[in-house]
């Protein structure tokens, strides 16, 4: 496995591309937006420069990393040599299915197709292709270059060979992996959204300030990041989308907090919009 194509140049897609290139894969990063590709290229260069200045990588690793990534707006060209495609677009099933149908027609028969979904069904996605045995979920965490886990989710038809290849790639990326049988929300999302949603409810009820809720969880439960900070990092719209799906599939305990719904309606999506629970416009 040498050639990885990443679809979607957002925070997660850019992070997956950066980490893959750093670990000696040849990477093509694709997006339908030229502007988003340019922003992702700038962010990857900024991260590489900062990592080199801080001694996390050598100058040779930085140059090699940047040489390993190509940015491509044509989907057909992006996947022409791909052995593994990792999709990292918005968490909407209809959009993922539409994309995977295109990938199925454009990619080599041997290409493995992975989705970076945090909650949606790889079985449903794979069933829309002619290769369900080569479709799985490969759930990375933000920021990708720092977070050690990849959650690997097996669809109903996913082959053992596909799972073993994805495990090997994850190890080559410097990650630990866990294998999860498909169920809505997998392991991490089910737990994470419950904590984040309850934090939103506490904020709405006036139990404590956002800062003190986050501080309590970090210092009292030893979490590296507070649940409201985490929501802003992930994106409150993404958090809401996951909750809506889990509410539909798993029941009432996943009903989204009214305050979360209100923030998303107001366009307060977190770091990516400059404002969420906290204000980032001065950063």
From TrEMBL:
Q: Where does NAD(+) bind?
A: 8-13, 31, 91, 96, 118, 142, 272
Its BP terms in the Gene Ontology are: fatty acid beta-oxidation
Domain 3-hydroxyacyl-CoA dehydrogenase C-terminal spans what residues?
A: 185-280
| Coiled-coil intervals | none
What PANTHER family would the database entry show?
3-HYDROXYACYL-COA DEHYDROGENASE FAMILY PROTEIN, 3-HYDROXYBUTYRYL-COA DEHYDROGENASE
Is NAD among the key words of this record? yes
Query: What sequence ranges are listed for the domain 3-hydroxyacyl-CoA dehydrogenase NAD binding?
Result: 3-182
Q: NCBIfam families this protein is in?
A: PRK09260.1
Residue(s) at site: Important for catalytic activity: 139
Tell me the GO molecular function terms: 3-hydroxybutyryl-CoA dehydrogenase activity; NAD+ binding
Pathway membership:
Lipid metabolism; butanoate metabolism
Per its UniProt record, what Pfam families does this chain match? 3HCDH, 3HCDH_N
For this entry, the protein name equals 3-hydroxyacyl-CoA dehydrogenase
Q: Which keywords fit this entry according to its UniProt record? A: NAD, Oxidoreductase
Q: Is NAD among the key words of this record?
A: yes
Q: Which InterPro entries match?
A: 3-OHacyl-CoA_DH, 3-OHacyl-CoA_DH_NAD-bd, 3HC_DH_C, 6-PGluconate_DH-like_C_sf, 6PGD_dom2, NAD(P)-bd_dom_sf
Q: Which organism is it from?
A: Ureibacillus yapensis
Q: Report the family membership.
A: Belongs to the 3-hydroxyacyl-CoA dehydrogenase family.
């Amino acid at each position: 496995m040498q050639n990885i194509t990443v679809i979607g140049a957002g925070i997660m897609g850019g992070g997956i591309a950066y980490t893959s290139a750093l670990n000696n894969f040849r990477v093509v990063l694709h997006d339908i937006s030229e502007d988003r590709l340019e922003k992702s290229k700038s962010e990857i260069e900024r991260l590489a420069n900062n990592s080199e200045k801080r001694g996390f990588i050598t100058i040779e690793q930085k140059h090699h990393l940047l040489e390993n990534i190509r940015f491509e707006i044509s989907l057909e060209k992006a996947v022409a040599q791909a052995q593994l495609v990792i999709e990292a677009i918005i968490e909407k099933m209809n959009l993922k299915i539409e994309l995977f149908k295109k990938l199925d027609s454009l990619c080599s028969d041997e290409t493995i197709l992975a989705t970076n979904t945090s909650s949606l069904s790889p079985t449903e996605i794979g069933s829309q292709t002619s290769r369900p045995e080569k479709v799985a979920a490969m759930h990375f965490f933000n920021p990708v270059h720092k977070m050690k886990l990849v959650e690997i989710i097996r669809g109903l038809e996913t082959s053992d060979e596909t799972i073993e290849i994805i495990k090997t790639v994850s190890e080559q990326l410097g990650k630990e992996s866990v294998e999860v049988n498909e169920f809505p929300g997998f392991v991490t999302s089910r737990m994470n959204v419950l904590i984040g949603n309850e934090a939103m409810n506490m904020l709405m009820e006036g139990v404590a300030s956002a800062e003190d809720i986050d501080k309590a969880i970090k210092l009292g439960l030893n979490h590296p990041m507070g649940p409201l900070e985490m929501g802003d990092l992930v994106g409150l719209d993404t958090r809401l989308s996951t909750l809506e799906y889990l509410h539909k599939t798993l029941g009432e305990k996943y009903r989204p907090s009214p305050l979360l719904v209100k923030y998303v309606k107001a366009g307060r999506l977190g770091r990516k919009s400059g404002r969420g629970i906290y204000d980032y416009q001065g950063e």
